[in-house]
Structures are given as C-alpha cells and as structure tokens.
Amino acid sequence: MAASTQPDVMDKLVSLCKRRGFIFQSSEIYGGTGSVWDYGPLGVELKKNLKDAWWRSMVRMRDDVVGLDAAILMHPRTWEASGHVAGFTDPLVDCKTCKGRFRADKLDDARCLQKPSKRPGEAEQCQLTEPRSFNLMFKTFMGPVEESASTVYLRPETAQGIFVNFLNVQQSTRQKVPFGIAQIGKAFRNEITPGNFIFRTREFEQMEMQFFVEPGKDMEWFEYWKAERMQWHQSLGLASDRLHYHQHEGSELAHYARAAFDIEFDFGGTLGFQEIEGIHNRGDFDLGRHQEYSSKKLEYFDQPNNKRYLPYVIETSVGADRSTLAALVNAYREEEVPGEDEGRTVLALKPVLAPVKAAVFALTKKDGMPEMAKKIAGDLRLHFPVDYDETGSIGKRYRRQDEVGTPFCITVDGESVNDGTVTVRDRDTLKQDRIAATALRDYLNERLGG
Ligand code: GAP
Questions:
Q1: How many CB atoms lie within 10 A of CB 293?
Q2: Among 22, 89, 335, 444, which residue carries the largest CB count within 10 Å?
Q3: pLDDT tens readout for residues 115-151
Q4: pTM (2 d.p.)
Q5: Which atom of ligand 1 lies at the shortest distance from residue 319's CA?
Q6: Which residue, judged by its Cα, is nearest atom 9 of ligand 1?
Q7: Would you give the distance in Å from CA 116 to the centre of its chain?
Q8: Average pLDDT score over the chain
Q9: Residue 37 CB partners (closer than 8 Å, separation 6+)
Q10: 318 C-alpha vs ligand 1 centroid, how far in Å?
C-alpha cells in the first residue's frame, strides 16, 4: 500500500455528514448499531446520484449489458456452490484480558483495548487465543421453525444472483456472448474489524456487473473493463493522482479469480490508498460450480459456430457506500474566501453527484422578493432538486450551500423584481452572472450535465 500524501479529513466529514443530514449512525438513540449507517435526506440523494451514474454508464448507455434485481435471500445451496460456506472466513483471535477481537492476519494494523493501546499481543498482559475461522455470512431462518434445515444467509455479494440467473437472462433477452448482467443491491458481511465510517460496514450496497465471454477472449475483456472502470471513477471527479490499480498476486487472489486488480483511492491520513472496486477474471468457476451443485446445464449455445461452452466471467464490483465516501473525501475542502474574514468549507462535488443542484434566495423578506424566489424555486424543482432559503445573511446562506456541495445559488434582489433578472453564483469560481430568470433553466442545464 502506498503512503498517503492527502490530509485526514475523516473526522471532519463524519461530523459534517451528521450535522447536515448526509449520514447518521443506525439506531443512534439506542447507542448505535456497530458499523451500520443510515443515509439522511442529503446522503440518500448523493448515493442515489452515484448509483444512477453507474447504472447509466453500465446499462443504459450500452446494448451489451442488461439489468437485474435479484433477491437478497437465495437457496442455501448457492453459498455452498460459490464457496462462501466453506471459505468466506477471516481468522479471528480473542484477547482474554481486554476482551478485544481481532483479525489474526491484520494484527499489525490493530490496537488493543487496553491503555496505552498497543498492537494486540504486544503488552505483557495480552492473552491471545489461537486463531479460529469465523464465517462472515449473516444467518437467518426461513419459515417458523428455527432448525438447520431452514437456515438461509443474507447474501455477502450480489454476484451470485447474477450467476444463477445467467440462462434466464440470456434466453429471455436473446443476448449473445459477449454480454453482461448488472445489478445494484444490498450485501451483508459480519466483518470482524469494520470501521472508518462507511468504508467497511456490515450492511452495504454493491454495484456489480458480470460480463460473460468466450474462453480465450477473457484477458482481452479483462483489460477493457479495467480501463473502463478507472475512467468512470475519473469521470465522477475523483482526482487522477488519488487513484491507482493494485494487482492481486499469489495468496491475495480469491479462490475464484484467474486475475484480479483493485482500483484504489487515496482516502488520506492513515487510511491512505484503499480498494474501492475489484475487477476480477472469474473464469468459469461460478457457472461451473452452480452447474455442478444444481445439476442443471448452464452452458451457452453458440449457434453460428454450433458449439456449447461455459462462458468465462469478467466481474466489476464496486461498493456504492465506499464510492460515496471516496466522493465526499475527494470533494472536501477548507478554503479562504477572497475579501472575507471567514473561510468556508466546501464540498466540490461534480454537479451530477450534488444532492441539491441549485438554491434560491430572496435577498430580503419584502418587496415581492420571496414571492418571486419561491416561484423560481418551484419552476426549477420540476427539473432538479432545488432548495429555497430566506433566513440569515446572504453570506451565511452561501456557506450553508457550499458545505453541502450545491453548485449554484440564485439570488432574487430589488433589481430582480423590476427587470426580471437574478444573480447566479458558481460554487467553485465564486463568480456571479446576472441573467434573466427565464433563462435559468437552460443556463443551469448546460452547467449541471458533467
Ligand atoms: N463479488 C466480488 C466481491 O464482492 P469484494 O472485493 O469482496 O468482491 C467488492 O467487494 C466491493 O464491495 C469492494 O471493492 C468494496 O467497494 C465493497 N465492499 C466490500 N466489503 C465491504 C464492506 N464491508 N463495507 C463496504 N463496502 C464493501
């Protein structure tokens, strides 16, 4: 892992996200649920924008990828076939003294619960148990009787819903290999050492795509998707110098992978570069295993060449929550404002991701200004999310919008009421344009696209 050159903004972001309604700890009034988070009014818009951008680029803009929304609960045999029952484990050690629980393979990164805190096992009092395998899948029961026959799992990845539906989708859509199936959905992992806000959580959303290709053409497609996915992260404004690839080699390679690269983002501070997306060449592992465990043929019939085969799969798998965190970290700035004593905190989010696209202000609460401003806000709201604010000084209102990443602020003043013009202030350049209120929609549309 490369060292970070970026500042640590995580604590500041956690506080901003709570204060402004992006992200709250789950069940906070009961003391919180460990590493589970709720998205507030602004957070849900931000994450939705990110998921929409992914869906648009992976499904809507392509004729070789189709969508799916498979159920979270799947037949338990799915997870035997996929290897998760036997192998989706972390080695766990407990400390009998401090009652801490740690991943045996990550002791160097962990701190024990005693003060002063040390690496677990380092202090004389530490009493670490032998490592034991801990399966990360959450179990629950289907039906009224809690017996092992009805044990089901909350899916730890969305991918298996795609594999088991491969032929359903291929035959119903008449897609020809190469083609892909994409889906966005919740996944659950009982992580031993979750943390870092929404970076590693027990309930999260994945955006996964499995691209089915002819064996032998897999590495060509692997390289194609590796480049495409990096370009997507850059298109959402993640700084190029904060992104790089990390290749999985040797024991790092998952049991199903013939080749794997992560796209890593530099989260700054001690977290540094961390995986946000995995691109895997899964070969025919998954379709082969499901064919074996279900005793149902999952081969593709290549009609022009009159041959049947199990396609190989190139997978792209990105966390919606982790990408949301990357977007927030990437966008967070504290800046001086020329000509003003107070600086500002700004989320320089790409407009396509910003939860609110424009805020409309009435300079004062009289002379017809609020009426005109509310009318403008109402008209624009038909096209994108808009905020209306008439409280506090204009400077304070700008700061409030900067902090949540609103790209444009529109002010209705005395002149507006007379001649129908308004000022539009750009979040990033701080420049103001005076334009006709009737031209606002086109003006904003032009600038919100990218
Ligand atoms: N189907 C392949 C798969 O699930 P993964 O590398 O385990 O691969 C893919 O996960 C992505 O899902 C990661 O790059 C990350 O963005 C996200 N992810 C995985 N575990 C997560 C967790 N506990 N919390 C938040 N996001 C997670």
A1: 15
A2: 22
A3: 777 889 888 889 999 999 999 999 999 988 777 678 9
A4: 0.94
A5: 16
A6: 317
A7: 35
A8: 95
A9: 23, 24, 25, 26, 197, 198, 201, 321
A10: 6
